[in-house]
């Protein structure tokens, strides 16, 4: 920021900071994001007060851009504020308005109290550009937090959507729902191998009834999981291959080098037969009393 603009802004900001704060809060309160359900009045006022203090300190240090060391504390505050807003579910607009809504109060106070001269217009332009830079920095910090939250949620969903179920002693089932990509394949593989070790399972049924389509890449992911299970000493059975999927696989020339069954029930019956067991219907006892 030019020295001439700073010489205009600093005295006005130092002398009339309460006035700026009051008008700033008036502009923030009506916004839906600051209605009090997620952010209390006292907390918002504290954030605004700290921002103005840090801004004045950076300007007094003669910082020219927000990348300067003098703005480090203010950048840290905006990063914390953006992360908090993103975690609480604030929208990008509700986050950005914290900085951008300060423009008009500063312009108004400068117009009312800045000394007459040619530097007033330069001060307005300088403070506007500075707040634009701080607003963009806030949005970038907000976006980084949102992206990290989305990645973490995707990982949690992938883990929750790949439960390994014990059907019988030595028999596990892994029902898959949704698309099977490389990242999810890794989660599936880790969950299945861990369950095989814990349960000392000899057979694992991978049910793909909930997989919308099976292409060459999906088949490769399935075969990787089967191969890993075999290395752990467990045979795999794939169930849930619907007619449409079977036709698609034949058309694509996809070959699953593993036993497959149409339904989970058929796969379970096969797994039991491998253990020398079978499922039979028990004839109901005659409930009619004898004479």
Terminal CA distance: 108 Å
In the sheet with the most strands, the strands line up as 1-2-3-4-5
- Which range best describes the helical content: under 10%, 10-25%, 25-40%, 40-55%, 55-70% or over 70%? 55-70%
Level-2 CATH architecture of the largest domain? Orthogonal Bundle
CATH class of the largest domain: Mainly Alpha
Which spans of ≥5 residues are poorly predicted at pLDDT below 50?
none
Number of helices: 11
What value does the average pLDDT take?
A: 87
Number of strands: 5
Shape verdict? rod-shaped
Query: Which value, in Å, is the CA radius of gyration?
Result: 32 Å
Name the quaternary structure.
single chain
Number of domains: 2
Q: Specify the biggest β-sheet.
A: 5 strands, mixed
Strand content: 5-15%
Brief descriptors of the model:
rod-shaped, phosphoprotein, alpha/beta, Transcription Regulator spoIIAA, Globin-like
């Amino acid at each position: 920021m030019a020295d001439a603009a700073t010489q205009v802004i600093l005295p006005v900001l130092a002398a009339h900071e309460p006035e700026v704060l009051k008008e700033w809060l008036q502009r923030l309160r009506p916004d839906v994001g600051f209605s009090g359900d997620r952010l209390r009045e006292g907390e918002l006022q504290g954030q605004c007060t700290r921002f103005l203090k840090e801004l004045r300190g950076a300007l007094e240090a003669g910082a020219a851009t927000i990348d300067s060391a003098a703005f480090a504390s203010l950048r840290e505050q905006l990063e914390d504020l953006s992360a908090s807003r993103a975690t609480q579910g604030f929208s990008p607009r509700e986050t950005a308005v914290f900085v951008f809504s300060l423009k008009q109060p500063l312009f108004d106070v400068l117009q009312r109290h800045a000394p007459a001269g040619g530097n007033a217009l330069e001060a307005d332009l300088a403070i506007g550009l500075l707040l634009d830079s701080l607003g963009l920095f806030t949005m970038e910090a907000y976006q980084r937090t949102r992206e990290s939250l989305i990645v973490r949620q995707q990982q949690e969903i992938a883990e929750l959507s790949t439960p390994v179920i014990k059907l019988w002693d030595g028999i596990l089932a892994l029902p898959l729902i949704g698309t099977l990509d490389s990242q999810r394949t890794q989660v599936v593989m880790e969950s299945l191998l861990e369950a095989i070790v814990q349960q000392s399972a000899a057979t694992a049924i991978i049910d793909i009834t909930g997989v919308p389509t099976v292409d060459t890449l999906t088949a490769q992911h399935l075969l990787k999981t089967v191969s890993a299970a075999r290395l752990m000493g467990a045979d795999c059975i794939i169930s849930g291959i619907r007619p449409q999927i079977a036709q698609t696989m034949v058309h694509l020339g996809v070959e699953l080098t593993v036993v497959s069954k149409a339904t989970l029930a058929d796969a379970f019956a096969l797994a039991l037969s491998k253990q020398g067991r079978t499922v039979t219907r028990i004839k109901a006892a005659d409930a009619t009393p004898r004479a």
